[in-house]
Amino acid sequence: MAGKSFNPFEMAQAQFDKVADLIDLDTGIRELLRNPLREYHFSIPVHMDDGSVKVFRGFRVQHNDARGPGKGGIRFHPQETIDTVRALATWMTWKCAVVDIPLGGSKGGVICDPHNLSLKEQEQICRGWVRQMAKNVGPINDVPAPDVMTNAQHMLWMLDEFEAIQGSKFPGFITGKPVGMGGSLGRTEATGYGLIYTLREALKDKNINPQDTIASVQGFGNVAQYAIRLYTELGGKVICVSCWDQADQTAYTYRRNTGIDLDELLQITDRFGGIQKEKALEKGYEQLPADDWLKQEVDILMPCALENQITGDNVHLIDKKVKLIAEGANGPTTPEADNFLEEKKIYVIPDFLANAGGVTCSYFEQVQSNMNFFWVKDEVLSRLDEKMTSAFHAVNDLATKRNLYMRDAAYVIAISRVAQACKDRGWV
Ligand code: NAD
After folding, report:
1. Enzyme catalytic residues
2. Interval between CA 306 and ligand 1 midpoint (Å)
3. Does any ligand 1 atom lie closer than 6 A to the CB of residue 149?
4. What's the pTM?
């Protein structure tokens, strides 16, 4: 999460400004797109199990909805800030646009730490969030979803509260619901698999066989786990993962040079993606400092944890062997680090393209929920593959044709589409 000096929203704006200059965007549309259209800040009182009342801060930021209803997750995190939410809402706008789904960009959050909250307390936060936002979210204006430290159960509580307030059933109000309760098959896998669909295409484009590649992954949560699953199925080898250690309040990297065993690690991992240190050591993993995932002699790096992880301070620690970075997390690389990567010609599949599998599948979930007709898993995943593959090639082709850094090429496509929608609507 955001450190003291790091402001993710300033970073999102810096990325935007660079491309706005590149495509010579008019002043009015530039001003409109570099800030959110709307934002909500509110308090959520919760009756704690110990009898006290604690008030949590909640947010929803609706960055832009020119292309369709807002879409974006709700994150629970102790260091959540409004600028993090603004940045993530902005990136959602670009993400939906780059994969060409008819949705805008939103994001929500609550400053809280679910590690220290009972399920009853978490349920009250979910219901309280919806009570505050019920008038301003919904299946045809803004559709929430899970994000860091929120899950299908949280979404179902939120849906239930929304439907109780509205007095009707609205399965399309929220996505990331449990399968069988309006959820889509394939949603759990979607972000990690989507990341690997784009990686697969990038390797194909570079004539590299996945079986000849080794990767190091930051994070071991939802995105990382499914990315590792599919990458390994394609023949790749992961030697490193890292995760946050709640007891020690620091992150560690776990390495096994012969390759990690995903299923074995899953057995010793909690629901927050934290690996049990002692058990990992018993199973022959080396425990290394937090940043070591970045320093490995591998072909591919996959940051799949949080924003602000590859920075001006540590980017030079990336090994010379690294050819490609596939960003599963949102905003893992700062503009300063981007300059270095661009100069060193390290190929980057940028976050809002690489991790768009989640929102694409959420869009499929919303479509299915609104129809009340659900597809089989193969149909979901093959539609997802099709969307991710075509979005990847559109960006890669533009980057090649205009000799652009991949992040800039993705931004050119996304910003142009959103700007056009705003113009077509007569907003600017
Ligand atoms: P998650 O909560 O399931 O997992 C996060 C993982 O990161 C955990 O293993 C945690 O231990 C680890 N982590 C936390 N702090 C760390 C640190 N300082 N160093 C190393 N590891 C650390 O979250 P997730 O759903 O896998 O999301 C990961 C990232 O991907 C986030 O940036 C999120 O916004 C982004 N993302 C997620 C989705 C999705 O569908 N889940 C979609 C798009 C983008």
Report:
1. 107
2. 6
3. yes
4. 0.93
Cα 368 to the chain's mean position, in Å? 22
pLDDT digits (tens, 9 = 90+) for 186-242: 998 999 999 999 999 999 999 999 999 999 999 999 999 999 999 999 999 999 999
Query: Is-contact 98 349, C-beta < 8 A?
Result: no
96 lines ligand 1 (CB under 6 A): no
Q: Kindly report, residue by residue over 231-245, the tens digit of the pLDDT.
A: 999 999 999 999 999
